[in-house]
Amino acid sequence: MRLLESRADLSAWQSETLSGGHSIGFVPTMGCLHDGHLSLVRTAAEENGRALASIFVNPAQFAEGEDYDRYPRTLEADMALLEQSGCDALFYPRESDIYPEGFQSIIAVEPLSSELCGAARPGHFQGVATVVAILLNLTMPTRCYLGLKDYQQFTILRRMVQDLAMPYTLVGMPTVREADGLAMSSRNRYLQGAEREQAAALYRGLSAARSAWSNGERDPQRLEATARAALTEAGIERIDYVAARHPLTLAPWQSADPIAPVVLMAAHVGAARLIDNLRLDDAAA
């Protein structure tokens, strides 16, 4: 696996790859990789001539007081996992490669970026959209693979690519879960002792809402209340939101909508802010 530590390194690798007639499958990450990330890399390798990952802990998507400084940085272990998963190259840029001196631009996808997680983390999705746009334009992939655990993020990035006529295909991949249903996340390592068991309540709540949907419940407030109940029963007190939304637009879901909702939630367990979601017509998730 090639380590690309600058724009020049990336450009040289791209030229070699494209001159060889290979497509590029790209997986952007912030590192501290788990099997959710690696499933994206494996799919990128299977579906493209070359698989490229990036690791960049993006300061623009962290607000003051969030966990930028303590976000886990595990480059050596990440490189080994990427190589085992079939990754051909890793783009590991300096901050100056992403945000050169004098950089002033921001991409804001509104109003999608200001609700749900955006309401709890003002500016977060502007930072995400901006860095992903930069990474897409630098890497120029055939396909970009993103996990649907970050459902709102994927919806925002899909909207950005459509609105700005960017020539990239975004591929949303299913959430990878632990045995008890907890969505894999780099922030799960913040969970201590009993908090790990408590965190599994997020998936229990989503599963309860799916069961209610399967049994004929169509009232969005009741579906939300069913999912929220599992969190409160587990003793989770700080809940940012539990929301039933249209799966394509993230508008509040209405009983008359002809498509099943996605229920999204965010809650704090110990030092970890956890997010999860479930399409209620998805029996396999």
What does this protein structure show overall?
It comes from Magnetofaba australis IT-1. Homodimer. Belongs to the pantothenate synthetase family. It is an enzyme of class 6 (ligase). With 285 residues, the protein is α/β, with parallel strands linked by helices. The protein is built from ten helices and nine strands. It has two domains: 172 residues, Rossmann fold, CATH 3.40.50.620; 93 residues, Pantoate-beta-alanine ligase, C-terminal domain (Pantoate--beta-alanine Ligase, Chain: A,domain 2). 38% of the residues lie in helices and 18% in strands. It has a six-stranded parallel beta sheet with strand order 1-4-3-2-5-6, sandwiched between helices. A three-stranded antiparallel beta sheet has the order 7-8-9. Strand 5, helix 7 and strand 6 form a beta-alpha-beta unit. The longest helix is centred in the middle third of the chain and has 16 residues.
Strands, helices and their partners?
Elements: E1 2-4, H1 7-19, E2 24-29, H2 35-47, E3 50-55, H3 75-84, E4 89-91, H4 95-98, H5 117-120, H6 124-139, E5 143-147, H7 151-163, E6 169-173, H8 194-199, H9 201-214, H10 220-233, E7 238-245, E8 262-269, E9 272-279
Parallel strand pairs: 1-4, 2-3, 2-5, 3-4, 5-6
Antiparallel strand pairs: 7-8, 8-9
Helix pairs in contact: 6-7, 9-10
Protein name: Pantothenate synthetase
EC number: 6.3.2.1
GO cellular component, one term: cytosol
For the record, what is the CATH homologous superfamily label of the largest domain?
HUPs
The tally of domains stands at 2
Q: Count of DSSP helices?
A: 10
Share in helix = 25-40%
Structural class: alpha/beta
Strand order of the largest sheet: 1-4-3-2-5-6
| Second-tier CATH architecture of the largest domain | 3-Layer(aba) Sandwich
Keywords: ATP-binding, Cytoplasm, Ligase, Nucleotide-binding, Pantothenate biosynthesis
Catalytic activity: (R)-pantoate + beta-alanine + ATP = (R)-pantothenate + AMP + diphosphate + H(+)
Enzyme class: ligase
Binding site for (R)-pantoate: 61, 153
